[in-house]
Specification:
With 439 residues, the protein is mostly helical. It has 14 helices and three strands. Among the domains are: 137 residues, no CATH class; 80 residues, no CATH class; 65 residues. Helix 5 packs antiparallel against helix 6 and helix 10 runs parallel beside helix 12.
């Protein structure tokens, strides 16, 4: 390559490196005098750069060559970083200023003139790569904005669902779903601090609202269960006192009244109810066992009573399946009175009939409880509010989407459309739940 071609190449693309600066013997760029002083050769003459006492001339010269190569490497590295687009143009210009001072004051042995010329070529290199740098930064910004929009959609969807669940009364299902949404939030990409904080505040508020309502609900259940347990404990205490009574008829009547009081007291915690029921039934059984022993002489009557029960239980079981609750309740009430008016029956045979009687009674009670739930005006009103709220939200988001599309903001429109679609799914579930009340 001619000197002219080499100069043109250097001006267009600086490629200085230590290897190209030192050709052959390093002594062509410097020498060591007899007194140990090291000189570098420059176009305008020699300049002393220092000495390295206690070393051979070759070692001293090599030391100052390495100092030169270190700065030359910085020049080459700076050029490479500019070409790769990794360096901000303003930072690169600051680095050039620093390198100028380093080269000007460098006490090293090498082609200092070429090194200085290479430094002066870098500003042109910076300008030549500025457009590519800016294009890359712009592309990075586009990608970053797209990722932010995607993250915003994800987190807005999570928040919207959490808000829709804040008034749910499906305590277990909703609680588990909110835990899943929390994990989805943690896994979702981060937004800027302000946007994340705003969405998190909404998300957290919905979770707290649901948790507070759930705690209140179960606290009320606990209070109601305690009241039921208190009533049943009183019934059990009286039943235990009556267990040894010999007043057969009045005591049997009182046990029936206690049984009615037991049923009227409602249901409490299953474990507590079961324990108290065992105590009540034990007292009742103790009394009736003694009564049965006392009335063994009336076996003929008990056999007749057994026949009555056999006939009556068929009528009672015929009430199932229930097609008309009110009619079934009235008939069951009438038949129950007949059932309890039947005299003594052998205990070993009575148990099977009692189980069949209890099965019918429990079935009617369950249907009655279900009907009461479906006709609860408070629950129906809440369900209607949820449905109306979702309808209003869908309309609002669709209006936002339309406005955004009209304004040419497709990203905002997409967020609004997805929010509307999500609420349509929730609306279908809410309407399904509302329909259950009308069955």
């Amino acid at each position: 390559m001619s000197n002219a071609q080499q100069k043109e190449h250097i001006m267009s693309e600086p490629t200085f490196s230590p290897a190209s600066a030192l050709v052959g013997d390093p002594s062509q760029f410097g020498r060591v005098a007899e007194d140990g002083v090291v000189y570098v050769r420059l176009p305008e003459g020699e300049r002393a750069v220092g000495s390295y006492p206690g070393k051979t001339p070759e070692e001293a010269l090599a030391y100052f060559v390495r100092k030169f190569e270190a700065v030359a490497s910085e020049v080459a590295l700076l050029a490479a970083r500019i070409k790769s687009g990794a360096l901000v143009p303003s930072d690169a210009l600051e680095a050039v200023t620093k390198l100028r001072h380093q080269v000007a004051s460098l006490n090293g042995v090498g082609d200092l003139a070429t090194l200085a010329a290479s430094v002066e070529q870098i500003p042109d290199l910076i300008e030549g790569h500025r457009a590519a740098y800016e294009a890359r930064k712009e592309a990075e910004k586009v990608v970053k904005d797209a990722k932010r929009a995607e993250a915003l959609i994800i987190k807005e969807k999570i928040v919207s669902e959490a808000e829709s669940l804040a008034l749910s009364e499906s305590w277990k299902t909703t609680g588990e779903r909110l835990k899943v949404l929390l994990e989805e939030w943690k896994a979702a990409p981060r937004l800027d601090k302000a946007a994340d904080a705003t969405l998190w505040k909404r998300f957290s508020a919905s979770r707290n609202k649901f948790d507070k309502r759930r705690r209140t609900h179960f606290s009320q259940l606990e209070a109601a269960s305690s009241a039921v347990a208190s009533k049943k404990e009183e019934i059990v205490a009286e039943a235990k006192k009556l267990a040894t009574s010999k007043e057969w008829l009045p005591t049997a009547k009182r046990f029936k009244e206690l049984m009615d009081a037991w049923k009227a007291s409602g249901r409490g915690k299953q474990s507590v109810d079961a324990k108290l029921w065992e105590q009540f039934k034990a007292a009742q059984d103790q009394f009736f066992a003694a009564k049965n022993i006392d009335l063994e002489k009336r076996q003929g009557t008990m056999a007749e009573n057994l026949k009555k029960r056999e006939e009556l239980i068929v009528e009672i079981e015929a009430l199932l399946p229930v097609t008309d609750l009110n009619s079934a309740r009235k008939k069951f009430h009438d038949l129950s009175e007949k059932w309890f008016k039947i005299g003594m029956t052998e205990r070993s045979k009575r148990a099977a009939f009692d189980a069949r009687f209890l099965k019918v009674e429990n079935e009617i009670e369950s249907i009655q409880e279900e009907q009461s739930r479906r006709t609860d005006p408070t629950a129906i009103a809440r369900a209607n509010n949820v449905v109306q709220g979702l309808l209003d939200a869908i309309e609002e988001y669709e209006e936002k989407a339309a406005k955004a599309e009209a304004a040419g903001n497709s990203a905002k429109a997409l967020v609004a459309r997805e929010a509307a679609e999500a609420r349509k799914i929730w609306l279908a579930e809410a309407q399904k739940g509302l329909a259950d009340f009308n069955k």
